[in-house]
Specification:
The structure holds two protein chains of two kinds.
Chain A: E1 24-27, H1 29-39, E2 48-49, H2 52-61, E3 76-78, E4 87-92, E5 97-101, E6 104-107, H3 110-118, H4 126-132, E7 137-147, H5 160-170, E8 175-180, H6 186-196, E9 201-208, H7 218-232, E10 238-240, E11 243-244, H8 251-265, E12 269-272, H9 287-290, E13 301-304, E14 308-311, E15 316-319, E16 330-332, H10 335-343, H11 355-362
Helix pairs in contact in A: 3-4, 7-11
Chain B: H1 3-8, H2 18-27, H3 36-50, H4 61-73
Classes of the chains: A alpha/beta, B mainly alpha.
Amino acid sequence: MPAPHGGKLVYRVDKSIDTSGIPEIKIDEDMAKDVENIAYGVLSPLQGFMCRNDFENVLEHMRLENDVPWTIPIVFDIEGDLKEGDEVILSAEGGTKALFHIEDIYDYDKKAYAEKVFRTTDAAHPGVKKVMEMKPKLAGGKITLIQEGDERFKKYYLKPHETRILFREKGWREVVAFQTRNVPHMGHEYVQKTALTFVDGIFINPIIGKKKKGDFRDEVILKSYEALIENYYLKERAVMAILRTMMRYAGPREAIFHAIMRKNFGCTHFIVGRDHAGVGNYYGPYDAHEIFNEFPDLGITPIFFRSFFYCKKCGGVVNEKICPHDKEYHVYYSGTAIRKMLINGEIPPENMMRKEVAEIIMSYENPFVD
Amino acid sequence: MTAEKEEKGKYTTVSIPTPLAEKIKKRIEGTGFNSISSYVTYVLRELLANMEEEEEEVFSKEDEEKIKERLRALGYLD
């Protein structure tokens, strides 16, 4: 099992902290996810929100001040009269509460932030838009979680110290992580199983959180994966747990960030597909593969996949590296086409989606986000 | 090394034998490495990463048992 990123798994939880008399700042659910992820070590070695030196290093060099690879700023934006040395309680509607010790308050350039992280300053990019809406200063410092929030999907909410013990107990030395934001079709299954062939176990790790209108709802994704695992995976070889985090849509930089989080969960390998964490046409389809060349010290091995498709002539699921036949024989896994069939009450063909998965999706009156 | 880099204190100078530097210069021709420094940095990071220390135990045996109990209760462990 790989050492946690930066060498030590962070665990900053203290439910006994007396919060009386400490001023409170309201945070949104996205920020609450960052807070819990810091506290539970998903973002090890970060112990809090980034101070200036880490922030600037991440923008310029994609590394923390101490040279540990890190590509996405984890920052807390502020306005008003907070000052260095203050302690505040961060409180989210969903219940998350944490103590934030402010060590550093600093200015930042939103345009430079966007340009470096998202490779664009186009306000139509959702990540850029979010940065441009941030408050004018950033505050860095350690946090300690006092209370966990979001009660949904508790059963699937495993923390890195738990998955590390779980993998060890299962006897898994090499574990591949698969990230998803969608219900599984046959292409996903083949990617996962191809990777699984070479390691001891697979960690299916759906991202739970804010979704766009028309996306599959979180519970639908989880239930459909349960059906897939139940019927088509060896129980001793597959584990599913959720990751609560927001998508930044930072493409290549976010692919590295996603890999780092899975390393902290104890995974040795991470599947990177086409246009990982991309949006629109801001990144090349395989930019998220190439960026890994810049990190020989990442400590988790990426497994790159191009798209899988069904070939009528091969009579099975293949990819462009192994199928010699013309495109006329190929059936591509189109999420849009599958969605359309499901909306029309049609079960997609077996070479596209497992019947058990389709039935689960169709058992929901509305499987999509309104 | 540029004055700007030196000023920020982000880089330092390491001496290597000239023949080795020449070898590296030839080795990186036509690759993505744009300088001897960037190649040496890459190789050293790779080397040091392979020597990463073992994980420190965060939890006591008692805590670990509690975690295993939770994992069993959730159906992750038999």
